[in-house]
Structure formats: C-alpha cells, structure tokens
Specification:
With 73 residues, this protein is an all-alpha fold. It is 79% helix and 0% strand.
Length: 73
C-alpha cells in the first residue's frame, strides 16, 4: 500500500472546473468596468484584460503563500 488516498486525485480534478467557472464569473464583473473606462477598446480586448488581471492576481496570491508558508509545498 502506498498510503495515497484515491479520492484525493478526484477532488483536485473537480477543483479546476470550479476555479475556471469562478474566474469567468468574476470576469463578468471586471470586463464591463474595463470596457467602460476606455470606450475605444473592443469588447474582446476588455475580456482579455479582465482575464489577464485575474490570472495576475491569482499568481500573486499563490506566490505570496509559497513565500510565507514554504513548508506546505
């Protein structure tokens, strides 16, 4: 026995679709704000900037956790 919990892998695979769904929902709030700030942008560009902002924020949070709690990783 390796001691691994087989349900752990299923739990991780279910978190990715949930994270993508939450990011898209947050982008529904961010994209119109970006689009309203500069009306010369196309709607696709507003969505792209919103997604880029969310990804940047997620990386900042992840790296902060890694720096301040390295024993978890």
């Amino acid at each position: 026995m390796s001691g691994c919990d087989p349900s752990l892998g299923a739990s991780r695979s279910q978190k990715l679709p949930l994270a993508i769904f939450v990011a898209l929902c947050l982008n529904l709030l961010i994209a119109p704000i970006v689009y309203a700030a500069d009306s010369t942008l196309e709607r696709f560009s507003g969505w792209a900037i919103g997604v880029l902002g969310l990804v940047t924020l997620a990386i900042i949070i992840y790296l902060s956790i890694v720096v301040f709690q390295p024993e978890r990783f």
